[in-house]
Amino acid sequence: MVHPLEDMRPAAVTASRFEQGFWGARLDTNRQRTLPSQHAQLAATGRIAALDPDHRPDDPRARHIFYDSDLAKWLEAACYSLSVHADAVLARQVEELIAAFGRLQRADGYLNSWFNIVCPEKRWRNLRDEHELYCAGHLMEAAVAHQQATGQGHFLAMLCRYADHIAAVFGRAPGQRRGYPGHEEIELALYKLYRATGQTRYLDLSRYFIDERGQSPPHYYDVEARARGEEPRGAPYDYCQAQAPVRAQDRAVGHAVRAMYLYSGMADIARHDADEGLLQAGLRLWENVVHRQLYVTGSVGASGQGERFTTDYDLPEETAYCETCAAIGLVFWAQRLLNMYGEGRFADVMERALYNGVLAGVSLSGDRYFYVNPLASRGDHHRQEWFGCACCPPNIARLLASLGTYAYSEGQAAWVHLYAAGGAELEVEGGTVRLDVATEYPWEGAVAIRVDPGRAREFALCLRLPGWCRQAGLRVAGEEVPVERVTRDGYARLRRTWQPGDLVELELAMPVERVWAHPAVRMANGKVALQRGPLVYCLEEADNPFVPLARLALPASAELRRVRRPDLLGGVDTIEGEALVAEVADWQETLYRTRPARTQAVRIAAVPYCAWDNRAPGQMLVWLRSL
Amino acid sequence: MVHPLEDMRPAAVTASRFEQGFWGARLDTNRQRTLPSQHAQLAATGRIAALDPDHRPDDPRARHIFYDSDLAKWLEAACYSLSVHADAVLARQVEELIAAFGRLQRADGYLNSWFNIVCPEKRWRNLRDEHELYCAGHLMEAAVAHQQATGQGHFLAMLCRYADHIAAVFGRAPGQRRGYPGHEEIELALYKLYRATGQTRYLDLSRYFIDERGQSPPHYYDVEARARGEEPRGAPYDYCQAQAPVRAQDRAVGHAVRAMYLYSGMADIARHDADEGLLQAGLRLWENVVHRQLYVTGSVGASGQGERFTTDYDLPEETAYCETCAAIGLVFWAQRLLNMYGEGRFADVMERALYNGVLAGVSLSGDRYFYVNPLASRGDHHRQEWFGCACCPPNIARLLASLGTYAYSEGQAAWVHLYAAGGAELEVEGGTVRLDVATEYPWEGAVAIRVDPGRAREFALCLRLPGWCRQAGLRVAGEEVPVERVTRDGYARLRRTWQPGDLVELELAMPVERVWAHPAVRMANGKVALQRGPLVYCLEEADNPFVPLARLALPASAELRRVRRPDLLGGVDTIEGEALVAEVADWQETLYRTRPARTQAVRIAAVPYCAWDNRAPGQMLVWLRSL
Q1: CA-CA distance, A255 to A304, in Å (whole number)?
Q2: Does chain B have fewer CB atoms within 10 Å around its N or its C terminus?
Q3: B6 Cα to chain A: minimum distance (Å)
Q4: How far is B105 from chain A (nearest CA, A)?
């Protein structure tokens, strides 16, 4: 039995700072380029106009069942940004959007642009497919972020009225419908609404949605299909994790983003209720994902058919789907488990996803996006400015704009999960602790943290020792601390009386590593991935003109060096070495023959996966043949 | 410039015998099991009833636009079988089907169960998608086979009337439509009809269909779309090889089966007309397919999306589509080029496709089929008794039932392309030559051919020296013949005065071979396929309990032995040796780690690819990692 920690919680968005360095640059781009360009895209693609009931577009595609969620995620991102950086233009855009949603809301609280304007008669008739509760959830998250950013309650009040309406419609009381969302998301959003308002009815509704899922017979999706006059598809509804009650589930199945959002909501409720059954179900699912279904890039959801999980160890590289939103959802889930258990194994997955599968989702320029993140490309996979189904871009924006909540935790201790130049002010055992962090992480393993509790005070500072790190050194106020003696569950736990200005120096050994996958991962047999620190690397055609890159093989004896390249991709470290390439010259027009290709030694250079496809289009490869 | 041979033609179906041995057993099964069970499937799935205008099925799917072609291919197969083996039941089934088609034929000659019964108003309105000319072509092929098998002309006359109708509707004369089939097939069928009847209007129509394809502007598929009130899709129509006139094409594109049928028809017309432009276009396409887009199993068409060719060297193993019909179509095309040029390179591809990609399409029991033939399987790919789209099963049946036409040619020489126990009676320079062939091919490379020209006579006997064979011995009437001295273009050409009873002894060295693919084939880098003689081998889980099979790697030094296994799969030779398997035991729940898997030496056994999936379901793998 696992006992969640009693008081550990993510830092507030406003509590952290990211200054220069790896994340400072990315977050500046997110604020300066991503948020404005996304607003322009939302306007240009009709998503904003779609809120106006009087707007009559020629093109019926100018409205869509999940447009509201795109707007809501952007609103949430913008509010996080406003909470730490005033911006009159952004604030006006936010209030205009909120006002437009306000004009759309019905007297009974219902709020959805598609169903209010296009087909009011279809409200709540198809939870399985039509994303109403999903859109509602995203609006709730946005409203909570808005209230926290501005201190104003009008948007939050709108969403409370909507939540009250939903609570009246769905539930187990007589006259209510026993429905639950086809695309989960509202569960975690209702929990946020509960935390923001203290209203337990939102907690109750979230708990209801979680526990009602997958109950049968009758299965609600069958019931509502019959009510629409349609033939039910019949069980299993594993596409949306409704094949069984969630407590009976032990494998991540179906649509990966839905799964991640559900599991995150389950973690919220399980922790709140100290619900051992729900906790254990969550951990079983976590272990399945992390031990059997996780890409080395921290992405999940192998198949594009249904954007879904497939079978254990099925992690193809070229056809990998790995939706950006799924990696983001994994970060959400990992963060919840991390703050529940305080164990580095959750932070390791969170970090892996964040630095690789998530961050690859947005260009260095901040205005182009991957929806799909394969681990090998023939050169035909490129970021786009926007998508018809545009869930990923504003999802990245809101994650980056709230990065501090993933980097730090507070409560009974001050926790540092992600190392980044900047710092935080954390509430620890009733007082404020200021941390100033100096580091070139993820390029260097040295982290210096100046601790300032205001006055000398005893408390614990918990510093993550990443799972990828095999050797760490630690000095506190100039004195060497034996790391293994203070480390538990992946964190160096430094409980002492801290003086203002105490310096903690952490040195994480960060060699270039070859990574092998479990032999059950079919495509990775005989291959290695290259990793240094939290960054997974890849080969791009731009640096390695040996297409197809599958021709390359890395001898076991090849020395791999980290090379600083301030000139490249905004400043990255590459991994370089000598590999063998299969020669094509003597094949001419032969397709098959009875002797192998000759090989030739060539220099190769790998770049961080998160920085790929920011240059000329070309092939890319994460898993490299190993000799 | 290539000069087609003046008189080389496939032997008639009735001219050859297959006795015991590899093919004898397969052909017995085809006759005894495949043809009757397919007739039962045609009946059980409503395909036969669908010919009856008075039959009113409840299920609208009980008729289909290409049901006629399934029936036609079965009829063709049955007629080939009847031509060499009397069977009263089969003959009755054939005549009943022909009579049903006869009742369906309109006064103007039009004959199509879908358009006659379901939607007469849509006749000839959508050549791009609706398979009318495709069905017509298959009926023509069946009618020619029927006339040749029975000597009766009623079916052939029906199809001549239909062809006359088609010739009246389509063409370049005023009032005619400039259309051509979306699914090619009628081109080669019309050529057969011309050969059977001597009527040049069928030749002209075939030539018209070939040369009109892809002409623009306007593009016919745009024209007919507008006539239906639809928005044209617009060029390129490469899915059905109509992106450009065929003479301007130099890469095989689009739907692979359509391509193979088109190219076969092009070869027929090019040869008949000695049309150098068309010949060269065909050779360009051939070289593209054989040098860039051919699986080692002789299959083509890499992608299931559109059942089509993709890009050069794109030959994925697990997701390989490789429709059985496409490999059959490749056999048709190869046979035409072989009989045009008399060069072994065409026979090599024909043999590779036949023994591997085609033959895998049917179970050893003769009543289960693959539509898709991947080169690796996770264990979830199995033959089925039938398909909603059932093109492949009767296509295999008709190919096997006419195998002799692929094995032998006649004309200015007696040609043996495929070695099989049995023999043939060939017309050579005005006389009959009887060949009696004794061999255990493809298990043994020894072939003994007794030649009987009736009386002593000079002519050439051309014996194929397969491209896979690197060392051959030859004795004629007891005397050693230096092979290299008599060999040209892959055939030992033995021109001499043959005495009745002369014995030719051919000894083809048949070692186990490792085969490597061109390094541009991404998935095959670092891997080998195993081949012996014409047979490509694969590993099945049944013999190699080391799933996933991708865990196996074959050291370069590993000795591979052929092992006779009369007990296995109806009697096959296996290839056995020692490989290394990556151990999973010490991974526990680790998905990624920084040291490679330990390996262990294990015995492996490979079976012929054509015999896979005839035992317990399991994984399969053709390309084996090579160390």
Answers
A1: 10
A2: N
A3: 29
A4: 39
- Dist CA B194 CA B200 (whole Å): 6
Q: Which residues of A touch B300 (CB under 8 A)?
A: none
Q: What angle do CA B286, B289, B294 make, to 5 degrees?
A: 135
Q: Model confidence at B2, in pLDDT bands (50, 70, 90)?
A: very low
pLDDT at res. B11: 98
Minimal Cβ distance to A518: which of B319, B518, B587: B587
Backbone angles phi and psi of B610, in degrees to 5: -65, -15
Q: How many CB atoms lie within 10 A of CB A374?
A: 23
The amino acid present at B25, given as its one-letter code, is: A
Record the tokens describing residue B547, joined without a space: 């799933």
* Percent share of chain A, pLDDT over 70: 99
Q: In this predicted complex, what is the ipTM?
A: 0.96
Going by C-alpha positions, the residue among A250, A336, A252, A264 that lies closest to residue A300 is A252
pLDDT at residue A56 in the model: 81
Q: What is the architecture of the domain spanning B12-409?
A: Alpha/alpha barrel (1.50)
Pick A518's closest partner by Cβ from B517, B521, B591: B591
Q: pLDDT band for position B59 (50/70/90)? A: confident
**A587 chain-B contacts, CB cut-off 8 A:** 518-519
Residues of chain B with CATH 2.60.40: 410-508
Cα distance from N-terminal residue to C-terminal residue, chain A: 44
Residues in A closer than 8 angstroms to B596, CB to CB, are 516, 528, 626
Q: How far is B459 from chain A (nearest CA, A)?
A: 35
Per the CB < 8 Å rule, is B519 touching A582?
Answer: yes
Name every chain A residue with its beta carbon within 8 A of the beta carbon of B321. Answer: none
| Cβ pair A591:B525 closer than 8 A | no
Query: Min CA distance, A58 vs chain B (Å)?
Result: 18
Is it the case that residue A45 has pLDDT exceeding 70? yes
Taking residues B147-151, report their average pLDDT: 97
What is the chain A residue with the closest CA to B293? A591
Highest mean pLDDT among A118-122, B230-234, B351-355: B351-355
Q: Can you tell me the distance from the alpha carbon of B281 to that of B279, in angstroms, rounded to the nearest whole number? A: 5
| Domain(s) of CATH 1.50.10.10: residues in chain A | 12-409
Burial of A560-592, coded b for 16+ CB within 10 Å and e otherwise, reads bebeebeebbeebbbbbbebbbbebeebeeebb
Chain A partners within 8 Å of B548 (Cβ): 313, 519-520, 522, 525
Active site residue A589: no
Given a cut of 60, whether residue B3 has pLDDT beyond it is no
Instruction: With a cut of 60, say whether residue A466 has pLDDT above it.
Output: yes
Determine which one of B391, B462, B538, B610 is catalytic: B391
* Domain made up of A410-508: CATH architecture: Sandwich (2.60)
Judge whether A391 counts as a catalytic residue.
Answer: yes
Select which of B187, B307, B317, B351 is catalytic.
B307
Angle between helices A200-212 and A154-169 (to 10 degrees): 50
pLDDT at A2 over 60: no
Enumerate the residues of chain A whose CB falls inside 8 A of the CB of residue B294.
Answer: 591
> Which chain A residue lies closest to B469 (C-alpha atoms)?
A594
Using alpha carbons, select from A420, A417, A508 the residue that is nearest to residue A461: A417
Average pLDDT over residues A164-185: 98
The predicted pLDDT at position B61 comes to 65
- The shortest C-alpha distance from A579 to chain B (Å) reads 14
**Neighbour-count burial of B19, counting CB atoms closer than 10 A to its CB (0-12 exposed, 13-18 middle, 19+ buried):** middle
Give yes or no for a contact between B408 and B9, defined as CB atoms under 8 angstroms apart: no
At a CB cut-off of 8 Å and minimum separation 6, what does A73 contact? A138, A141, A142, A391, A394, A395, A397, A398
State the sign of the Cα–Cα–Cα–Cα dihedral A592, A596, A599, A604. positive
Q: Which amino acid is at A390?
A: A
